[in-house]
Specification:
The complex is a heterodimer of chains A (344) and B (847).
Chain A: H1 10-30, H2 34-45, H3 50-56, H4 66-96, H5 116-129, E1 134-135, E2 141-143, H6 144-147, E3 166-169, E4 173-175, H7 180-189, E5 194-203, E6 215-225, H8 230-244, E7 251-255, E8 261-270, E9 287-296, H9 298-303, E10 312-319, H10 320-328
Parallel strand pairs in A: 1-5
Antiparallel strand pairs in A: 2-4, 3-4, 5-6, 6-10, 7-8, 8-9, 9-10
Helix pairs in contact in A: 1-4, 2-4, 5-8, 5-10
Chain B: E1 2-4, H1 5-9, E2 12-13, H2 19-29, E3 38-40, E4 43-47, H3 60-71, E5 74-75, E6 93-96, E7 102-111, H4 119-128, H5 136-148, E8 153-156, H6 157-164, E9 171-176, E10 182-184, E11 190-192, E12 198-201, E13 206-209, E14 213-214, E15 226-234, H7 236-245, H8 251-256, H9 264-280, E16 283-290, E17 298-302, H10 305-311, H11 317-326, E18 330-332, E19 341-345, H12 355-366, H13 387-401, E20 405-406, E21 412-413, H14 415-420, E22 434-435, E23 446-447, H15 452-464, E24 469-481, E25 491-503, H16 520-534, E26 539-542, E27 554-558, E28 561-568, H17 571-576, E29 584-589, H18 590-595, E30 612-621, H19 626-635, E31 641-650, E32 659-668, H20 677-695, E33 698-699, E34 725-735, E35 743-748, E36 760-765, E37 778-782, E38 787-791, E39 799-803, E40 807-809, E41 812-814, E42 817-818
Parallel strand pairs in B: 6-9, 20-24
Antiparallel strand pairs in B: 1-4, 2-5, 3-4, 7-15, 7-16, 8-15, 9-12, 10-11, 12-13, 13-14, 17-19, 18-19, 21-23, 22-23, 24-25, 25-29, 26-27, 27-28, 28-29, 30-32, 30-33, 31-32, 34-35, 34-37, 35-36, 37-42, 38-39, 40-41
Helix pairs in contact in B: 3-11, 4-5, 5-9, 10-12, 13-16
The chains are: A alpha+beta (344), B alpha+beta (847).
C-alpha cells in the first residue's frame, strides 16, 4: 500500500485524478483486443490501481476535503468502467462478424407475371365493380342474329363493312366481331336492372401487322334500368378513365353514328402529349379516339323483350390492346400473342 | 369530305368568324375534323369525317344547314329553275327495264352554247378537289353534285343518235347488264359487266354504268351542244357491289351507295339548268320522270320529355323546337305539356325514323358537352357470378405465385399444327375440328381443339430466342362441332388451363453453382399445389392423354370425374416443333374444376409441444410404387403420426439386385403432451413392422424383430453399419513410442467374424480414460468399413461421419478405432471411450 504524502494538496489530488482519467481514456480507445482491455481494467480499476489507492487514502485527508475527493474519484472509476465496457462490446462485435460485401446480388426469387391484357382487365374490373358492375361472358362462336341483327344491323346494311367478319359458315355462323353479342345474351337472359362488363377477345378478318390483328381484346359495359340517361353514361365513363389513366385526363363525347346505339357518341381523350394543341401523335386532331358509346338502341331492347317505356340503358366499348401496349410500352401488337414478351 | 369555306359561306349568313370554333363545334355535332385546316389557292378547306348515315351532308348545302342549326343565322339556298313544267321529252326514248333497281330516274333535254366555265366555279371545284375541265356542262354536273350531293350525268345527244343509228330515235334503256357485255368508260378503261350490274344502254350496247360512271362514247365533248342530262337514284346495294367489283370508286358511286332522298333530284336538276342557262344560255326542251313510289315526309309522334329521359338534361321545349326547326323539321306543338308533338321529317333526312332519332338531333345540337355528368344513383343489382371466370382468376393468381408466366395465344392456327399436337393423327377430337370459311391468312384456317397446338409455338419462339427456363401457362378455349348442343349453334367451347415447364427450374446464383432442371415431378408438384390452393379434394390415378407420352400420365379425379392430367409432352409431338428437351406439364378442364367443392384449408391450433422426427430407411423391390408404401404406412397409422416426407431415394450400385432404398422422414407430434421416447419408438416400430409384413421390406439397421423387448439396450441409429462395430475386451495397454498421449491397445473381438481375421486387434487410441486400469474392460471397437462420427477439430466440437480405415498412426499400424458414445451417435458423452457394462454386453456382439 503506497503512502500518500500529507503534504499533497487537494488540488493536486484532483489534478492527479483527472490525469488518470485522460490516460485511461487514451489507452482504452487505442486497445485492440479484449485481453488488452482486461489488463487495462485491472490497471485502472483493480485492487492495486492508483484510483483505488487514492480512495483508500482518503482517511488521511482533512475532514472537509473528503466528500469532494471521494465523489470525484468514484465518478471517475465509474466513467472508466463504462468506457471499458463500451469498447469491449465494440471489439466483441467486430470479432464475431466478418464484414460482408453488401453489393453482391441476393438470391433470385421469381414470381410469375400476369399477361398484360389480364393486368389491364383487372384494373378495369376493379373500377367497374366498385360501381356495381359484374363480369359477364359469352361464346366466341356466335350467330349472325345475336352478333348483328339484334344489334340493329340487318343484313346488307352498309355499316357491316366496318366489321370484316370471320365466318365459320356464312351467313349464319361466325366468330364474334365485338363483345356486344355477349351484351345481347345478357339482355335476353337477365332482367333489368342490369350492370355488366364484358372483357374478352373478338375476331376480325384482318391481316396481322404492327397495329392490328385478327384476334384482339375489347372491354364493354352495359347498364340498363329505370332513369338511366346520357348523364350517367358521361359520369361513369369519366370516372372510369380518371381511375384508369389519371385524374387529369380530359374526355369529350362527340356525336358519332353507331347502329347499335341512339344517341351515339364517340369517346375521345385529349392528346396527352400535346395537351390539345395538335401534334404528330394525335395526327393533329388534338383528340385521340378511345371508344364508342351511346344509349342502347330501342330496337335492340325491344327485340330482347325489354319494355322501352320503362327502361333505358347505355353501353360503351373500347379496345384494350392499345391500352395494354401503352401501359407496358409494347410496340407491336403481335408480341402480345407470340412468345416474344420478355419481362425485365 | 372536303368543304371549301368559301363555298360554305355562300349559304350561311352570317358565317361563324372563328374557324377553330367552327370546326370544334362541327366535330361535336357529328362532323369531326379529320385533318388540320388546309389552304388551297388562298381558300381554306376543312376535311370532315364522313357520316355514313347522313347522305344529305354529302353536299355543301347539307353541311351549311348543320352550321345554321348549331350557330344560328339563316340558310341561303341557291337559285334554281323549275323543271316540272317542261314538256315531255320526245327526242329520246327512255325505258325502264329494271324497275326493281330504279327508285327514280329523271332526264332533261337541254340545248346549250359552247361556253367556258366561269372562274368562280373552277376555283370552287379545284378547292374541293375535282379538277375543273373548262367545259361548262361537265363542270356544272360536278358542281351541282358537290353542292347538293346528287350525282348527275350528261349524254351527248348527237352521240346517242350516232350510236343508235340513222333512222331510229336514240334510246336510254335502264336495264340489267348481260354477262359478258363490255363497255369503255370515261377515262378509257374497258370493263366486263355481269348480269348483276345496272346499265343505261341504247338498243345495241351499254352506254353508262348506272350510278357509277358514264361511257366514253356518249360523253360530253368540247363541241357538245345538245345533251340529255339525267339524275337518278338506284338500288344502292347494287351500285355498291358493282362499284367495288370493278374498282370504280367514283364520287357518284360513293354518293349513290347511301340512302338518298329522291326528291332532291328535282332541285338538283333545276339548279343545273339555272347555271347552264345563266352561263351558257341553255334552254330545256323536254323532261322525263320515272318516280313510281314517291317518298313523302314521315310524321313522328314526339314527346319532348324523351329528351330528358335519354339525355339527362333539361331543355326547354322552346329550345327543343327551335333546334328541330333550324334543321328543317316541321314541328307542330301542343299547348298541353303532356301531349306529344307531331314532327314532320324532311325527306332528305333518310336517317330519322324514330322518336329517339329526334332526341339525338336535339341533344347533339344542344351539345353533349352541356350535359352534366352523374354517377349511377340507383341501387346496383345483385352480383352475377360466373363460376368459370372466378376460378380462372384464382388459377392465374396461384400459378403466377408459383413462378409461372401467363401467356395468351390465338385460337386460330393451321390444320397441320392442330393434327400434330396429338400423338395419334386420327384422334377423335380432330373429327370435330372447326374450320373457317373465311380464314384471315393462309395459315390461320382452323380453330384449335387443344391448347398445345398454339402454346408449343410460343415455347419454340422462346427457345429460339435463347431462353433456358420456360414456365408458362395459358387459360383459353378449345372449339368443337357438337350436334348434341341444343341451341341454334351446334358448336361447343371448352375452357382449359394448360401449364408447361422446360429447361432449368431456377436461375444462376453465385452461391449455388449447380442449376437443377425441371423434371416430371415439378409438373406434379405444381398441379398438386394448384389443387390444394383451390381447396379441391382429389385423387391421382394412372391415365392416358392424347398429347402426353404413354406411361407418363397421371389423371386427377375429383367429384367422380377426371378433371385433369399431369404428363410429359409426347416426344413425337415435341419433335414436330423441333424442341429437343422434354416438356412437362398439366391440363385441367375449367368447367369441371369450377363444379368441384372448394374448401378452406384446415388451420388447426398450434401445439405447444415439440415435433420429433425419426428417419426410416427401407429396402424394397423396384416395382413397388411410392404410393403403395405411403398407403401401407397410413393404414397402420399410429395416432401420433403427423407427416411423412421422402427425403432420399437410391437406386444404384451397392444394393442387392432388384431393390431400391428409400429414406422417409416421419414426424411425430401430439397436441396434448410432449411425446416420450418410448411412445415414439413404439410408433416407429409399428410402421416398420407393417412395412416388413406387407411389402417384404427390409429396414436398414433392424435385425429380425424379436417379440421380447430387451429393456435398456441402446440401439444405434440406422445410418451406421452395425456389423462393423463390435464389443471387444481390452487385453493389453502399452504406451505409444512416438506419441506422448497415445496408447497402443490390444483388444479381443471374439471368433465370430472370420473375415476380419478376428481375434486380437491392435488399435492406437488417444482417449484419456484408457490405461492399464482398464485391462479387462469391454469397449466398442469400430473396424475398417464402419461409419462413425469422428471429431474434426482439436477441441472435439465438430463431428463428421467418416469411414474407419486401417491406418498407421505415428508409425504404428492401427487396425480400427475405439469409440466414445458420441462417435457412435449413442449419446453426447465424449470424454473418453465408452466403457460397456459387462452385464449387458458380451465380447463379439455388434452394437
Amino acid at each position: 500500500m503506497s503512502k500518500i504524502s500529507i503534504e499533497m494538496s487537494t488540488e493536486k489530488i484532483k489534478r492527479k485524478i483527472r490525469n488518470i482519467l485522460n490516460s485511461a481514456i487514451r489507452k482504452i480507445q487505442k486497445s485492440t483486443s479484449i485481453d488488452e482491455l482486461e489488463s487495462l481494467r485491472i490497471e485502472y480499476l483493480g485492487r492495486k490501481s492508483q484510483l483505488s489507492n487514492i480512495l483508500k487514502g482518503i482517511g488521511t485527508l482533512p475532514q472537509k476535503e473528503r466528500p469532494e475527493i471521494g465523489k470525484i474519484a468514484n465518478a471517475t472509476k465509474l466513467k472508466i468502467s463504462q468506457i471499458i465496457e463500451k469498447k469491449r462490446q465494440e471489439l466483441q462485435k467486430r470479432k464475431t462478424k466478418e464484414p460482408i460485401d453488401l453489393t453482391l446480388p441476393g438470391r433470385v426469387y421469381y414470381k410469375g407475371n400476369l399477361h398484360p391484357i389480364t393486368a389491364v382487365y383487372r384494373e378495369m374490373n376493379k373500377i367497374m365493380m366498385s360501381m356495381g358492375f359484374s363480369v359477364y361472358e359469352g361464346p366466341h362462336i356466335e350467330s349472325d342474329f345475336r352478333n348483328f341483327e339484334l344489334l340493329n344491323l340487318p343484313k346488307e346494311h352498309p355499316s357491316r363493312d366496318l366489321w370484316d367478319t370471320i365466318y365459320i359458315k356464312s351467313p349464319e355462323i361466325l366468330l364474334r366481331c365485338h363483345n356486344s353479342s355477349v351484351e345481347v345474351h345478357a339482355l335476353l337472359k337477365e332482367k333489368p336492372p342490369i350492370r355488366i362488363v364484358v372483357p374478352g377477345g373478338c375476331f376480325r378478318n384482318e391481316k396481322p401487322n404492327v397495329n392490328n390483328h385478327f384476334y384482339f381484346h375489347q372491354y364493354e359495359a352495359l347498364a340498363v334500368g329505370e332513369g338511366i340517361t346520357m348523364a350517367h353514361l358521361k359520369g361513369v365513363t369519366e370516372l372510369f378513365f380518371h381511375e384508369l389513366i389519371g385524374p387529369d385526363v380530359i374526355l369529350r363525347f362527340r356525336c358519332k353514328h353507331y347502329p347499335q346505339v341512339e344517341p351515339g357518341v364517340g369517346i375521345d381523350i385529349q392528346c396527352r402529349i400535346c395537351k390539345g394543341k395538335g401534334c404528330i401523335m394525335c395526327k393533329y386532331r388534338k383528340w385521340v379516339e378511345i371508344g364508342g358509346a351511346g344509349m342502347v338502341h330501342v330496337n335492340t331492347l325491344k327485340a330482347c323483350g325489354i319494355d322501352t317505356d320503362k327502361y333505358t340503358g347505355f353501353a360503351w366499348g373500347l379496345g384494350v390492346d392499345r391500352i395494354a401496349m401503352q401501359k407496358f410500352r409494347i410496340k407491336d401488337i403481335r408480341q402480345l400473342y407470340t412468345g416474344e414478351l420478355f419481362y425485365s | 369530305m372536303r368543304f371549301p369555306i368559301k363555298w360554305l359561306k355562300k349559304y350561311v349568313k352570317p358565317f361563324p368568324e372563328d374557324i377553330n370554333e367552327l370546326t370544334d363545334k362541327l366535330s361535336m355535332i357529328g362532323f369531326m375534323l379529320d385533318k388540320p385546316v388546309e389552304s388551297v389557292n388562298g381558300t381554306e378547306v376543312i376535311d370532315l369525317e364522313f357520316r355514313r348515315n347522313r347522305s344529305d351532308c354529302e353536299g355543301i348545302i347539307g353541311l351549311a344547314r348543320e352550321i345554321v342549326a348549331a350557330f344560328g343565322g339563316s340558310l341561303q339556298k341557291p337559285p334554281i329553275l323549275k323543271i316540272k313544267d317542261l314538256l315531255p321529252l320526245n327526242n329520246c326514248i327512255v325505258k325502264i327495264e329494271a324497275p326493281e333497281a330504279v327508285i327514280r330516274f329523271t332526264a332533261v333535254q337541254i340545248e346549250v352554247e359552247v361556253k367556258k366555265t366561269p372562274v368562280w366555279m373552277e376555283n370552287l371545284l379545284n378547292a374541293y378537289g375535282i379538277k375543273a375541265t373548262g367545259n361548262l356542262i361537265i363542270d356544272t354536273t360536278n358542281y351541282v353534285m358537290v353542292e347538293y350531293g346528287q350525282p348527275m350525268h350528261a349524254f351527248d345527244l348527237e352521240a346517242l343518235k350516232r350510236v343508235e343509228g340513222e333512222n331510229t330515235k336514240p334510246a336510254l334503256i335502264i336495264r340489267k347488264a348481260k354477262d359478258g357485255e363490255k363497255i369503255k368508260v370515261i377515262g378509257g378503261k374497258i370493263v366486263d359487266l355481269l348480269s348483276t350490274d345496272i346499265v343505261i344502254s341504247g338498243t345495241k350496247e351499254p352506254l353508262a354504268i348506272a350510278g357509277v360512271i358514264g361511257g366514253a362514247k356518249t360523253s360530253v365533248k368540247p363541241t357538245t351542244k345538245s345533251i340529255i342530262l339525267e339524275a337518278a337514284n338506284y338500288d344502292r346495294v347494287s351500285v355498291r357491289k358493282t362499284s367495288r367489283r370493278l374498282a370504280l370508286l367514283t364520287e357518284a358511286a360513293d354518293r349513290l351507295q347511301k340512302d338518298r332522298d329522291p326528291n332532291l333530284i328535282e332541285e338538283a336538276l333545276g339548279r343545273a339548268l339555272y347555271l347552264l342557262q345563266k352561263y351558257g344560255g341553255a334552254t330545256a326542251t323536254g323532261y322525263f320522270d320515272y318516280y313510281p313510289v314517291k317518298v313523302t315526309p314521315t310524321i313522328i309522334q314526339f314527346n319532348p320529355s324523351e329528351v330528358y329521359r335519354y339525355g339527362g338534361v333539361l331543355i326547354h321545349p322552346f329550345d327543343i323546337s327551335k333546334i328541330l326547326e333550324r334543321l328543317e323539321f316541321k314541328v307542330q306543338r301542343e299547348r298541353e305539356i303532356d301531349k306529344p308533338w307531331m314532327v314532320e321529317v324532311p325527306t332528305f333526312r333518310t336517317d330519322i325514323k324514330l322518336p329517339v332519332d329526334l332526341v339525338e338531333e336535339v341533344l347533339r345540337i344542344w351539345g353533349y358537352e352541356n350535359i352534366p355528368p352523374r354517377l349511377l344513383d340507383t341501387l346496383p343489382p345483385p352480383p352475377i357470378h360466373i363460376k368459370e371466370y372466378e376460378i380462372e382468376e384464382d388459377i392465374r393468381d396461384i400459378l403466377t405465385s408459383l413462378g409461372m408466366d401467363e401467356i395468351i395465344t390465338i385460337a386460330i392456327t393451321s390444320i397441320d399444327k392442330i393434327k400434330m399436337s396429338y400423338k395419334d393423327e386420327n384422334d377423335k377430337d380432330l373429327e370435330n375440328m372447326v374450320s373457317l370459311e373465311t380464314p384471315p391468312t393462309e395459315y390461320s384456317t382452323h380453330l384449335r381443339t387443344n391448347l398445345f397446338a398454339t402454346i408449343l409455338d410460343n415455347i419454340k419462339t422462346k427457345l429460339s430466342n435463347g431462353e433456358d427456363r420456360i414456365a408458362i401457362f395459358e387459360i383459353g378455349r378449345t372449339y368443337f362441332k357438337d350436334n348434341s348442343i341444343k341451341i341454334d349453334i351446334p358448336y361447343r367451347e371448352d375452357r382449359k388451363v394448360v401449364g408447361l415447364v422446360n429447361g432449368y427450374r431456377d436461375f444462376p446464383y453465385w452461391l449455388n453453382k449447380t442449376r437443377e432442371k425441371y423434371t416430371w415431378y415439378d409438373a406434379k408438384g405444381i398441379a398438386k399445389e394448384l389443387l390444394d390452393e383451390l381447396g379441391i379434394t382429389y385423387t391421382f390415378k394412372k391415365g392416358n392423354h392424347p398429347t402426353f407420352e404413354d406411361e407418363t400420365v397421371l389423371a386427377i379425379k375429383a367429384g367422380g370425374r377426371i378433371i385433369g392430367y399431369v404428363g410429359e409432352i409426347a416426344e413425337k409431338v415435341r419433335k414436330y416443333w423441333k424442341i429437343d428437351e422434354p416438356i412437362y406439364g398439366f391440363e385441367f378442364d375449367i368447367k369441371l374444376l369450377s363444379q368441384q367443392e372448394r374448401e378452406y384449408k384446415n388451420l388447426s391450433r398450434w401445439s405447444n409441444f415439440p415435433k420429433v422426427t425419426r428417419d426410416i430407411s427401407i429396402f424394397v423391390d423396384n416395382e413397388i410404387e411410392g404410393e403403395t408404401i405411403l398407403r401401407v404406412i397410413n393404414k397402420c397409422k399410429p395416432k401420433i403420426l403427423y407427416d411423412i416426407t421422402l427425403i432420399d431415394l437410391y437406386k444404384g450400385e451397392n444394393l442387392p439386385r432388384g431393390k431400391k432404398n428409400l429414406v422417409y422422414r416421419i414426424t411425430y407430434w401430439s397436441k396434448r403432451k410432449t411425446l416420450t421416447a418410448g411412445e415414439i419408438e413404439r410408433a416407429h416400430r409399428r410402421i416398420g413392422r407393417c412395412l416388413i409384413k406387407k411389402l417384404n421390406a427390409k429396414i436398414s439397421g433392424w435385425k429380425e424383430y424379436k417379440s421380447t423387448k430387451q429393456k435398456g439396450r441402446k440401439k444405434l441409429k440406422s445410418n451406421i453399419r452395425r456389423k462393423r462395430v463390435i464389443v471387444g475386451k481390452i487385453l493389453k495397454v502399452e504406451k505409444h513410442p512416438n506419441a506422448e498421449k497415445l496408447k497402443i491397445v490390444t483388444v479381443d473381438i471374439g471368433e465370430k467374424y472370420p473375415d476380419y481375421k478376428s481375434g486380437k486387434k491392435v488399435i492406437v487410441c488417444g482417449a484419456p480414460n484408457i490405461n492399464e486400469k482398464k485391462i479387462g474392460a469391454l469397449v466398442p471397437v469400430a473396424l475398417p468399413g464402419a461409419e462413425v462420427k469422428m471429431a474434426q477439430d482439436e477441441g472435439r466440437t465438430k463431428f463428421k461421419k467418416c469411414k474407419v480405415t486401417a491406418i498407421k498412426i505415428r508409425g504404428v499400424e492401427s487396425e480400427g478405432m475405439l469409440c466414445s458414445m458420441r462417435e457412435l451417435s449413442m449419446g453426447l458423452k465424449d470424454k473418453g471411450i465408452w466403457i460397456l457394462d459387462p452385464k449387458k454386453y458380451k465380447v463379439g456382439q455388434t452394437i
